[in-house]
What we know:
Layout: H1 9-20, E1 27-29, H2 43-46, E2 61-67, E3 71-81, H3 87-99, H4 111-114, E4 134-144, E5 154-160, H5 168-179, E6 183-187, H6 202-223, E7 227-237, H7 239-250, E8 257-261, H8 267-273, H9 277-289, H10 295-305, H11 310-313, E9 322-327, H12 335-345, E10 349-353, H13 364-379, H14 381-386
Parallel strand pairs: 5-6, 5-7, 7-8, 8-9, 9-10
Antiparallel strand pairs: 1-10, 2-3, 3-4, 4-6
Amino acid sequence: MHHAPIRTLPALAAAALLLLGPGCAVAHQPLDPAYAGPTPISRELASWFDYEALDGGPAVQLELTETSERWERHLAVFRVPAPAASTEERRWREAADAAGAPAPEPARTSAGAEVSFAPEQSHALVPPGRRPGEMQVIFEYYRARGGENDDEPRPGLLVTPILGGNYTLSRYIARYFAEQGYHTALVLRDEKVLAPHWELTDINGFVQRSIIARRHVLDWMQARPEIDGDRIGSFGVSLGSLISCALSAIEPDRVKRSVLVMCAGDMPTILAHGDEGTINRFRKAWLERNPGATPADLEAETRVALDLDPIVFAPSVDARRVLLFGTRFDAVLPFRNQELLREALGRPARWVVPTGHYTSVVYLMLIRERAQAFLDEALRPAVSAAAAPDRGTDW
Length: 395
C-alpha cells in the first residue's frame, strides 16, 4: 500500500476539506460543568503496572538519525525487566511446569521488522529481539532546537502511535510539536499488536507492558536537563489513545494533560464487530480456533478475559486535563464506543468531526491546532496567553 509522504499530509487534508464543502460542520462539546473530579485508582488495578524505577531513568542508547532547523531526531533503545506477572511470562512458566523442563525460548518478532525506520539508515542500536524476562523499548526522541531560549528546559510530550501500519501520522505529530518547542518522545511498537495467534488474555499483557514501558520513558524524560519534568503531556491516536488514557490514570502527577484522538471503550464489541484489517484478521483467527463460535461468542469471551479495558481506567482520569477528538462515522472504533468512554471519563471537552476513522485526516490541521492550544494552556502558559483568539466552535 502506498502511503503519502509525511510532509504532504497538511496539503492533502486541506484539499479534501475543500472538496467536502462548508456543510461538514465540526461540533464542539465543552467539559461537563457538573464534573466533580476523578476517583483514585484502586490498588488492585494499579498493581498491574508496578515497576522498578531506576535512578536517572533507564540506560538509554541514543543514535542521531535526522536533523532539521527546529529539531533533531534520535533513535532511542533500552531494555528493562519484563513485568513478572505478564501473560507472556506466565505462559512460558506454565509450559515449563507442564513439561517438567525449563521454559522454551519464546518466538519473538524481530524489532527491525516492526519498526519503520528510514530505509536508507542502518541502526546498529536495535538488537535482533527480546529475551525472556526482559522488555525492549524503542522510541524516537525529537529534541526541539532553535528559539530565543534554547538552553531553558522545555515541556515534553509522550506520543503513542496507532494500532499498526507505518508511522507517517505519528511522526507528523511528533515533528509538529517539536517544531512548536516540545521535546517529544514517540514510543514505537516492538511487537505485532493483536497478532492472529494471540489469545484474548494476551491483550492484558500488551496493555501492561505498554504502560510500564511508558513509565520508564517518563522517568528518562524527567531526568533530561532540557525537559521540564513538571510539564509533560501525552498524545495518543486510535489504539494509542487507549494506552494514553490508561497512562493518564496511572500517572496523574506526571502526565499533566492528555490529547486522545478517536479514543473508545468496550473493547469486546470492538473486537467482535470493528471493521479494520488487524481486528478482522484477529477475529477470523479466533473464530477458526473455536469452531462453531460466532462474533457474539468472541464478545462474550472477551468480557471474561479482558481485565484492562479503557473504561476501567476512565473514572481515575481527570477530565479537566483531557481533550477528546471524536469521529462520528467511525467503523473501526464506533462513535457509540467513543461515547461510552467519554461518559466514563466524566464528559471532558471534545471536538467531533464528521468523518470515519481514516478520513479524519481531513481535519488534521484542526486537530493539531486545537490540541496545541489545549496543551499550551497548561504546559506553556506564556505562549498560550499570547496566542491568537479562539476561532469559535466551527472550523
